[in-house]
């Protein structure tokens, strides 16, 4: 059903899939995501819809291999099917002409930033992008982001490309410059999102972040994805994934995302690796 | 029936079902009651005195012809009994297991006035299992195609009933289900040891064979809206989306790692099969000391599920006393046999975590019962300075569910009450929106499988006449 029609390796361990999912391709709007299951015994995991081609009926997914499910997913090839895909889930980004919009993507977070940047550009914003990565080799979507940005800055932790340093420094410099920053949208590792909210807080700049808690159903039924927002419970899968970052309890989210670190490790260890097309296989005892 | 025969029949004692021993069953997820043998079923069926005016039938929300199916069992025509059941109830193997019979059919049975009532639920289960296990399932007659199309949203008991009824009447039916597997609470909520998932799957497969199309991974309100379904050629829509929004207690520490909603806990374990991790990928944290908060079926299911994960202790913390427990008596009994620790008249005040944000303890306060409240139950009130700490590493919050707002929020002109439940006409299940019907938990709040199915039956009849003559 959900056939992979194109597979690309963007950087080591980061893949881009184009997958047949006609309905979702038609319906989805920037900021929304899907939940997929690779095979019958598999887990349900959320991934952002990076782009879509309604005429071809495909959606684009970009993911990083971090654990068992994403590792197995990366082992699939063109022509293989993904067992289940449900979506589009979550609220679309509230897109309008804010004026000067700064979009920030860190690491794999550039994938969810791209569709929003594209939407903001289309709505008439001046889009200033800041992309951050540990080093040059793992920077993704640079060309695509250039196409939808009026201005772009790149930072790498080791200085192997762009400016050496973190996206927060680049953001601070932008704020200190002549430019009036009307809104900031940032997606990346949670500590990065937390840090950039601290940069914008003193200036009261509208700052949106897209959150990535652990999810199960994605329809508001289980509460696995709950966060504290101004001290109140919100479900990221239906109330988000985007929130006003100044009101999110990031430390709690970091702790909750570590809920299963022991189990995740055990799951990875049950995978066996061998040479060949489907290099990771589920361990059969 | 001759008075003599009645006398003979009344002498037979009720046959309990054999069960897995408590010590054994807490180590597995297999079903607890083992079912009747054909001999025992026949004996039990003979206890029914075949009342002319069977009161039991008035206790059954879908009005199964109970004396008729029971007599067929007594005669040894088990397949005939199953077919008799299916005239009124599409899911007899499910209802025989999960119906609160003691409050419904069996409560009304005249034999129960003096001794114990006829074991209607056990017999229903027996006949349905017999038919399924023999594979002798007969497809009912399907009326000629009417050319009408119906969309059913949600594959829980209400939606499955609507689909089965309407497909038999010759309409084309498509079920849209948000999850990857149909069944609703039967699949993700009620545990394997009370309702084996293979049974739900077989019932769903039966609907497919009748011609019902089931589209999983379709969240109505997102993938398609109700208005889009109506525009895309569906002549009527049934909303059976259930009460799937978990309530939390709003006390400090509720987002600590180790605090679950019952929905999440049960979904991980039942639907995603976390009890078989790592063979299945979805994990659940296995606690040493687990506390379940609440006193209904969901709390009992969460606690009995917990005890099967081999912890030291499982507590059920309930703010009223034993008398007010809303869970089925049978479940409480099973739970006690399995070693659950009940803490009555106790309410949590806050959860306490360690440095990593993982649950370590719960602070509770003792309660006493005061005056009766609106629901007629005595209101629990805290006893000052009675706080105490209980060390736990898993908490399961099972205090109830509300209606999911997704569909009302995306459907023009669909009226809901102040709790968010869809408002329907009592006779038809029709909503404020033309061509849209509803029933089950999304209308009633949490209720029962059989009431949801009764709603489905009522709505199917109304949809049928709406489709044929345009009137609700
Ligand atoms: C709305 C949303 C959009 C996302 N978009 C993308 C994306 O476009 N690209 C991408 O690479 N990643 C994305 N993620 C993160 C992605 O879902 C996780 O990387 C993935 O679930 C990891 O699964 P695993 O089995 O490979 O790893 P695991 O070993 O299971 O987990 C590794 C880490 O991933 C997180 N995680 C685990 N299970 C889940 C789960 N069921 N749901 C969410 N997070 C989980 C945990 O923090 C965990 O520590 C998104 C997450 C959310 C919530
Ligand atoms: C743990 C637990 C134990 C229970 N035990 C018993 C018992 O022993 N006996 C008894 O009689 N009752 C019991 N109940 C109650 C009973 O299960 C419910 O009353 C019954 O399932 C309600 O049926 P329903 O058809 O209204 O909805 P549900 O069974 O809730 O099914 C609704 C379905 O709709 C789907 N859905 C929701 N929103 C959408 C959407 N937007 N688009 C598409 N699909 C959607 C859901 O995924 C779900 O599959 C129990 C309930 C729970 C939670
Ligand atoms: S469906 Fe439920 S109430 Fe009706 S006869 Fe069967 S067990 Fe009793
Ligand atoms: S009321 Fe009891 S005895 Fe009478 S018909 Fe019903 S089951 Fe049989
Ligand atoms: S993932 Fe279950 S409620 Fe959000």
Percent strand of chain A: 25-35%
Query: Which segments of chain A are poorly predicted (pLDDT under 50) over 5 or more consecutive residues?
Result: 274-285
CATH superfamily of the largest domain in chain B: FAD/NAD(P)-binding domain
Please give the radius of gyration of chain B in angstroms: 23 Å
Number of helices, where a helix is a run of at least 4 consecutive DSSP H or I residues of chain A = 9
In whole angstroms, the N-to-C terminal distance of chain A is 29 Å
Number of separate helices of chain B = 20
Largest interface comes to: A-B, 44 and 42 residues
Can you tell me about this structure?
The complex is a heterodimer of chains A (285) and B (472). Chain A has 285 residues and is of the alpha/beta class. Chain A has two domains: 2-90 and 262-269, Elongation Factor Tu (Ef-tu), domain 3 (Beta Barrel); 93-209, Rossmann fold (3-Layer(aba) Sandwich). Chain A is 26% helix and 33% strand. Chain A has nine helices and 19 strands. Chain A has helices at residues 22-27, 68-74, 110-122, 142-148, 167-176, 190-200, 236-239, 250-257, 261-269, and strands at 2-11, 14-20, 33-37, 45-48, 51-53, 58-64, 81-82, 84-89, 100-106, 126-133, 151-156, 163-164, 183-187, 206-210, 226-229, 232-235, 242-244, 271-273, 280-282. In chain A, the strands form five sheets. Chain A has a seven-stranded mixed beta sheet, sandwiched between helices. In chain A, strands 5-6-2-1-7 form a five-stranded antiparallel beta sheet. In chain A, helix 5 (167-176) packs parallel to helix 6 and helix 6 (190-200) runs antiparallel to helix 8. The longest helix of chain A has 13 residues, at 110-122. Chain A starts with a strand and ends with a strand. Mean pLDDT of chain A is 91; it is low at 274-285. By secondary structure, chain B is of the alpha/beta class. Chain B folds into three domains: 3-133, Fumarate Reductase Iron-sulfur Protein, Chain B, domain 2, CATH 1.10.1060.10; 149-244 and 403-469, FAD/NAD(P)-binding domain, CATH 3.50.50.60; 248-399, FAD/NAD(P)-binding domain (3-Layer(bba) Sandwich), CATH 3.50.50. Chain B is built from 20 helices and 16 strands. Chain B has helices at 3-11, 22-25, 38-45, 55-58, 66-74, 78-88, 92-98, 105-108, 111-114, 120-134, 157-168, 185-188, 197-210, 226-231, 262-271, 297-307, 329-337, 406-410, 441-444, 449-469; strands at 149-153, 172-176, 213-215, 236-239, 245-246, 259-261, 289-293, 313-317, 341-343, 346-353, 359-372, 378-382, 388-391, 394-397, 401-402, 436-438. In chain B, the strands form four sheets. A five-stranded parallel beta sheet of chain B has the order 3-2-1-4-16. Chain B has a five-stranded parallel beta sheet with strand order 6-14-7-8-9. In chain B, strands 10, 11, 12 and 13 form a four-stranded antiparallel beta sheet that branches. In chain B, helix 11 (157-168) links the parallel strand 1 (149-153) and strand 2 (172-176). In chain B, helix 3 (38-45) runs antiparallel to helix 10, helix 5 packs across helix 10 and helix 15 packs across helix 16 (297-307). The model of chain B has no long low-confidence stretch (mean pLDDT 93). Chain A binds chain B through residues 23-24, 27, 37, 41-44, 68-69, 83-89, 216-224, 226-228, 233, 238, 251-252, 255-256, 258-260, 263-264, 266-267, 270, 285, and chain B through 178-180, 216-219, 222-224, 244-246, 248, 250, 254-258, 260-261, 263-264, 267-268, 272-273, 277-283, 285, 356-358, 404-406.
């Amino acid at each position: 059903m959900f056939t992979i029609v194109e597979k690309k390796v963007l950087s080591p361990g980061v893949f881009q899939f184009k997958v047949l999912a006609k309905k979702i391709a038609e319906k989805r709007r920037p900021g929304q995501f899907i939940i997929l299951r690779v095979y019958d015994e598999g887990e349900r995991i959320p991934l952002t819809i990076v782009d879509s081609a309604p005429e071809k009926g495909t959606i684009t997914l970009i993911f990083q291999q971090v654990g068992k499910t994403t590792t197995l997913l990366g082992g699939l090839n063109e022509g293989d099917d993904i067992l289940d895909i449900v979506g589009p889930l979550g609220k679309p980004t509230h897109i309008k002409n804010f004026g000067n919009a700064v979009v920030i993507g860190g690491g794999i977070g550039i994938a969810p930033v791209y569709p929003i940047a594209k939407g903001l550009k289309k709505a008439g914003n001046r889009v200033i992008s800041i992309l951050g990565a540990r080093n040059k080799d793992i920077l993704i979507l640079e060309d695509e982001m250039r196409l939808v940005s009026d201005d772009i800055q790149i930072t790498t932790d080791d200085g192997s490309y762009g400016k050496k340093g973190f996206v927060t420094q680049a953001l601070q410099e932008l704020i200190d410059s002549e430019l009036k920053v009307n809104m900031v949208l940032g997606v990346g590792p949670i500590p990065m999102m937390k840090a950039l909210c601290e940069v914008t807080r003193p200036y009261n700049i509208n700052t949106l972040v897209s959150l990535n808690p652990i999810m199960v159903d994605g329809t508001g039924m289980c509460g696995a994805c709950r966060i504290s927002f101004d001290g109140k419970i919100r479900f990221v899968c239906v109330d988000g994934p985007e929130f006003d970052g100044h009101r999110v309890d990031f430390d709690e989210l970091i702790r909750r995302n570590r809920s299963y670190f022991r189990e995740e490790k055990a799951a990875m260890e049950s995978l066996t690796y061998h040479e060949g097309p489907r290099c990771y296989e589920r361990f059969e005892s | 029936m001759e008075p003599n025969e009645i006398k003979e029949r009344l002498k037979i004692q009720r046959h309990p079902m054999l069960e897995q021993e408590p010590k054994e069953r807490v180590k597995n997820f297999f079903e607890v009651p083992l079912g009747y043998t054909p001999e025992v079923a026949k004996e039990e069926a003979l206890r029914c005195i075949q009342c002319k005016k069977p009161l039991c039938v008035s206790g059954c929300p879908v009005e199964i012809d109970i004396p008729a199916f029971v007599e067929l069992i007594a005669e040894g025509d088990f397949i005939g009994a199953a077919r008799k059941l299916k005239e009124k109830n599409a899911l007899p193997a499910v209802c025989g297991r999960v119906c609160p019979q003691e409050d419904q059919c069996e409560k009304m049975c005249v034999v129960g006035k003096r001794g114990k009532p006829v074991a209607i639920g056990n017999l229903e289960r027996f006949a349905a299992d017999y038919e399924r296990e023999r594979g002798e399932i007969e497809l009912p007659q399907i009326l000629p195609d009417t050319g009408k199309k119906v969309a059913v949203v949600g594959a829980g008991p209400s939606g499955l009933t609507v689909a089965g009824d309407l497909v038999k009447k010759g309409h084309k039916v498509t079920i849209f289900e948000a999850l990857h597997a149909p069944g609703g609470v039967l699949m993700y909520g009620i545990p394997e040891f009370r309702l084996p998932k293979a049974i739900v799957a077989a019932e769903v497969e039966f609907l497919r064979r009748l011609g019902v199309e089931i589209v999983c991974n379709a969240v109505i309100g997102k993938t398609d809206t109700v208005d889009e379904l109506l525009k895309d050629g569906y002549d009527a829509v049934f909303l059976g989306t259930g009460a799937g929004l978990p309530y939390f207690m709003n006390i400090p520490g509720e987002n600590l790692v180790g605090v679950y909603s019952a929905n999440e806990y049960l979904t991980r374990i039942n639907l995603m099969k976390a009890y078989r991790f790592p063979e299945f990928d979805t994990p659940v944290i296995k606690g040493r000391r687990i506390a379940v908060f609440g006193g209904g079926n969901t709390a009992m299911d969460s606690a009995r599920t917990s005890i099967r994960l081999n912890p030291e202790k499982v507590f059920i913390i309930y703010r009223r006393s034993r008398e007010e427990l809303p869970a089925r008596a049978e479940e409480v009994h099973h739970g006690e046999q399995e070693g659950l620790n009940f803490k009555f008249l106790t309410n949590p005040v806050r959860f306490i975590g360690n440095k990593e944000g993982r649950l370590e303890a719960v602070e509770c306060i003792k309660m006493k019962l005061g005056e009766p409240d609106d629901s007629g139950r005595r209101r629990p009130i805290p006893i000052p300075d009675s706080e105490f700490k209980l060390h736990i590493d898993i908490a399961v919050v099972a205090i109830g569910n509300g209606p999911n707002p997704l569909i009302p929020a995306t459907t023009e002109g669909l009226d809901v009450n102040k709790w968010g439940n869809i408002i329907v006409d009592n006779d038809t299940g029709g909503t404020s929106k033309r061509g849209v019907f509803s029933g089950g938990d999304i209308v009633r709040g949490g209720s029962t499988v059989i009431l949801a199915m009764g709603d489905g039956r009522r709505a199917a009849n109304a949809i049928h006449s709406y489709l044929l003559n345009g009137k609700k």
